[in-house]
Write a structure and sequence with these properties.
The complex is a heterodimer of chains A (about 110) and B (about 110). Chain A is an all-beta fold. In chain A, about 0% of the residues lie in helices and about 55% in strands. Chain A contains no helices and eleven strands. In chain A, strands 2, 4, 5, 6, 9, 10 and 11 form a seven-stranded mixed β-sheet that branches. Chain A has a four-stranded antiparallel β-sheet with strand order 1-3-8-7, with no helix packed on it. In chain A, strand 5 (about 40-50) and strand 6 (about 55) form a beta hairpin. In chain B, about 0% of the residues lie in helices and about 55% in strands. The chains are: A mainly beta (about 110), B mainly beta (about 110).
């Protein structure tokens, strides 16, 4: 059974903290993605990676960075957490380039206080 | 940037009825996908339709795609209470460097009453 695992379901952090969200997939997928989901805004792409050590900005990369040192792991880093980064964060992975479905983790609900 | 709009934003029906959700998008696409999300959980892939396909079926799901109108619809027949969830369309843009990157609509919240 394919699996994308996010390290935490719920997380509470203080403003200004450096926050790490971890995502691991066991399907040998090339592509990995980080989205955030907010009510009324749907899912918005933060960053994605199509290979180890490769990363590309999505639609809303400001305030975030990513790391992909191993194929199975993709980390999202909030350099200095702010209250407007309170959101649901979803990690996903997929094969190939075009006609491929994405597999999602269960999500991390981050609250920044 | 959001790809487009989903319509309606919310849909409430009785068990056994059909549910239809619509999705519009803005750019040329390679494929369009539908996902389901149960409350507070991750998304689950339902169906993928390629740009050269017009209709696709999977169990009680029927998806249509009209590339001339840049729109798609998802029909769930004989709905069940367990179908209650949010439904999202997502597109993969045409072109070879998309890496399967999905652009999502805002979703339709479906409630099926027993």
């Amino acid at each position: 059974d394919v699996k994308v695992t996010q390290s935490s379901r719920y997380l509470v952090k203080r403003t200004g903290e450096k926050v790490f969200l971890e995502c691991v997939q066991d399907m040998d997928h090339e592509n990995m993605f980080w989205y955030r989901q907010d009510p009324g805004l749907g899912l918005r792409l933060i960053y994605f990676s199509y290979d180890v050590k490769m990363k590309e900005k999505g639609d809303i990369p400001e305030g975030y960075s990513v790391s992909r040192e191993k194929k199975e792991r993709f980390s999202l880093i909030l350099e200095s957490a702010s209250t407007n980064q309170t959101s649901m964060y979803l990690c996903a992975s997929s094969w190939g380039r075009l006609n491929t479905e994405a597999f999602f983790g269960q999500g991390t609900r981050l609250t920044v206080v | 940037s959001q790809q487009g709009e989903e319509d309606p934003q919310a849909l409430s029906i009785q068990e056994g009825e059909n549910a239809t959700m619509n999705c519009s998008y803005k750019t040329s696409i390679n494929n369009l996908q539908w996902y389901r999300q149960n409350s507070g959980r991750g998304l689950v892939h339902l169906i993928l339709i390629r740009s050269n396909e017009r209709e696709k079926h999977s169990g009680r799901l029927r998806v249509t795609l009209d590339t001339s109108k840049k729109s798609s619809s998802l029909l769930i027949t004989a709905s069940r209470a367990a179908d209650t969830a949010s439904y999202f369309c997502a597109t993969v843009n045409a072109g070879g460097t998309s890496y399967g990157k999905l652009t999502f609509g805002q979703g339709t919240i479906l409630t099926v009453h027993p």
